[in-house]
Amino acid sequence: MDKPSLLILDDEKEVLNALNRVLRKHFQLYLFSDANEAIGFYRDNPNIPLILTDMRMPVMDGATFLGKIIEINGQCKRFLLTGHADINLTVTAVNEGKISHYFSKPWDNEELIAELKNAYELFINERKTKQLLKVNLAKNAELSLINSSLELETNKTQQKLQLISTREANSFGRLKKTFSTFIDIYAETICLHTQDVTRHNFRVAAHARLIAEKQGCNKLTIFQIYIAGLLYETGKLALEQCLLNKSVETMSQQEKNLYGVFYQKSYELLNKVDELSFVAEIIKNIPASYNGNTAPEHLAAEEIPLGSRIIAIVSMYDNLVNGRQTQLKTPTVEAKHRIKELAKTMFDPSLVNQYLTVLAEQPSSKEGKVDYLLNSSDLREGMTLTRDIVNTDKNPMLTKGTEVEQHHIDKLIKIEKDQGEFFLIYAC
């Protein structure tokens, strides 16, 4: 694999030589002692993702230099080397968004390498996200075809989706595939941006669909609730990944305020597509408390859309068990207890009971198998692992695709008991 490119500017040759020795094994280096020369080079090579510069230099300080770099490519990751005397200028540069991180002299070699590597991974992920979003915008244009092919016919005794003509019937399969492709791309984009390898939104959508089926909803409503589960985190595309990497309960109040707007942002983004307006309304009301205490609308009980009430429960449970809500992953037994405690205040009590039954019975959906988050005691013979089970050293104990047998369960429970910890298991 090619090494990431890194441009370094420092007016001291000794510093450049030292950085060259430390970083040349890990990065493709471009070293400069003259700021104007470095800027000219970068204009010709604007795709270099990493920039490292000294703060105090003649002619042009590091913050000014990075400001000119931003004009060429604002997506690159920018770093400062700074001495104690320059700390006030460095803080200003941080606040103005000119730098991603700064290193105090003398720097720590391991920290320097690690931060630069992490920044490069972040740069790659952001670039992939933007590429997928471009595809999403192209797919948006195709969604308008669905309105011309489908109409809803309302009957006093029942509501169902009907195709109006033979021509529309023949084209519905193609249109449904187009719509599903758009939705899948959008959902994958969310996973990529939030760096969620567990496919949280896909699991939330599948569980929400299960509950909607058990509620006896019609096919259209079930479909809308499923799509809302897939896309409810769309607004997180507007949040920085450093914020998304934190569990909610470890955030400062300011961070929680920034984080909490993602539901509204999801609504604003999706409501622009006519075919997703009802889905957007579901997502907008997910934070609404069942007891009506949530401003500004203070919706309560049945006033809150059914899909919103379902996804609120399912997403909270998954976030607890997966460690996205709290600093540590929550055991499934404790997560179920916490959800039950919040019935009547935050959650619809009848839906809580129904979801707890789903978690106990672990059924499949009419649309296919459903992924469950489990501890060892929740496993059943015949289940199939959808991810590796790893030990504390990150070594796999059982691999993805393994069909669970009783001796596997017994061994895992024993290890949990002996080590005083629990495994997070993904299975269907």
UniProtKB/TrEMBL annotation:
<feature type="modified residue" description="4-aspartylphosphate">
    <location>
        <position position="54"/>
    </location>
</feature>
<dbReference type="InterPro" id="IPR037522">
    <property type="entry name" value="HD_GYP_dom"/>
</dbReference>
<dbReference type="Pfam" id="PF13487">
    <property type="entry name" value="HD_5"/>
</dbReference>
<dbReference type="InterPro" id="IPR003607">
    <property type="entry name" value="HD/PDEase_dom"/>
</dbReference>
<feature type="domain" description="Response regulatory">
    <location>
        <begin position="5"/>
        <end position="120"/>
    </location>
</feature>
<dbReference type="Pfam" id="PF00072">
    <property type="entry name" value="Response_reg"/>
</dbReference>
<dbReference type="GO" id="GO:0000160">
    <property type="term" value="P:phosphorelay signal transduction system"/>
</dbReference>
<keyword id="KW-0597">Phosphoprotein</keyword>
<dbReference type="GO" id="GO:0008081">
    <property type="term" value="F:phosphoric diester hydrolase activity"/>
</dbReference>
<feature type="domain" description="HD-GYP">
    <location>
        <begin position="175"/>
        <end position="371"/>
    </location>
</feature>
<protein>
    <submittedName>
        <fullName>Response regulator receiver protein</fullName>
    </submittedName>
</protein>
<dbReference type="InterPro" id="IPR052020">
    <property type="entry name" value="Cyclic_di-GMP/3'3'-cGAMP_PDE"/>
</dbReference>
<dbReference type="InterPro" id="IPR011006">
    <property type="entry name" value="CheY-like_superfamily"/>
</dbReference>
<dbReference type="InterPro" id="IPR001789">
    <property type="entry name" value="Sig_transdc_resp-reg_receiver"/>
</dbReference>
